[in-house]
Design goal:
By secondary structure, the protein is of the alpha/beta class. It is built from four helices and 20 strands. The strands form four sheets. The protein has a seven-stranded mixed β-sheet. It has a six-stranded parallel β-sheet with strand order 1-4-7-12-15-18, covered by helices on one side. The chain has a five-stranded parallel β-sheet with strand order 3-6-9-14-17, with no helix packed on it.
Length: about 200
């Protein structure tokens, strides 16, 4: 059974639990998330989704959080529908993170939505002013394992990032990217044209 079908079966239960959780203090969910990080099997996935619905700025339907996913600044993170975040990913939402529908983020990937203004440091560099810069991942994106997506990166819909790539600040049009820093290797123009024709038909 696919995750989408299972979600639809459980949706009435999820709706009731979300309504109950909505009246509970948010800090309880924030404090207990580290316990849920390593909860195994489908029970862990189910519980993490419920917690995410309470913690995130917004969280769509059928969002998968596998084991070991560490998230900070939940209140600045938006998840679309049918998003999958696999094992041991790290999301720092300090500067804002927006993830579109149908996005898959493979294991050990990091999204860091801030950097340091080291040119204006007054003292040790570790205390340099922080610059918040939103990360945006458009819908229908595939992020493979070990990728680093840095502050200010904006990925267009239908984008693929190869394993271990480093995506720096900037705007990335649809295509396949690889390398450190990530560079475009090929486009999806034909696929985009086909989608547009299908929607117009």
């Amino acid at each position: 059974m696919t995750g989408r079908k299972l979600f639809q079966i459980l949706k009435p239960i999820i709706t009731v639990l979300n309504a109950i959780f909505a009246v509970l203090p948010r800090f309880l969910f924030k404090m207990t998330w580290p316990i849920l990080e390593l909860m195994p099997w489908k029970l862990g996935i189910f519980m993490r989704y419920l917690w995410a619905k309470r913690l995130a700025k917004s969280c769509g339907e059928n969002v998968l959080f596998e084991t070991g996913v560490r998230i900070t600044y939940w209140e600045e993170i938006e998840f679309g529908d049918n998003v999958a975040i696999f094992e041991t990913c790290y999301l720092d939402g300090k500067g804002g993170i927006k993830i579109g529908d149908n996005v898959s983020i493979a294991h050990q990937t990091s999204l860091i939505s801030f950097d340091f203004d080291i040119d204006n440091a007054d003292g040790p560099l570790k205390y340099a002013p922080i610059r918040k810069k939103q990360i945006t991942i458009g819908e229908d994106a595939l992020i493979f394992s070990g990728v680093r997506i840095l502050a200010g990166a904006n990925l267009a819909p239908k984008t693929v990032v190869a394993a271990n790539a480093v995506v720096k600040e900037g705007n990335y049009e649809s295509g396949i990217y690889a390398g450190m820093p990530a560079k475009k290797k090929r486009s999806f123009e034909k696929a985009i044209e086909a989608d547009a024709k299908a929607k117009a038909a």
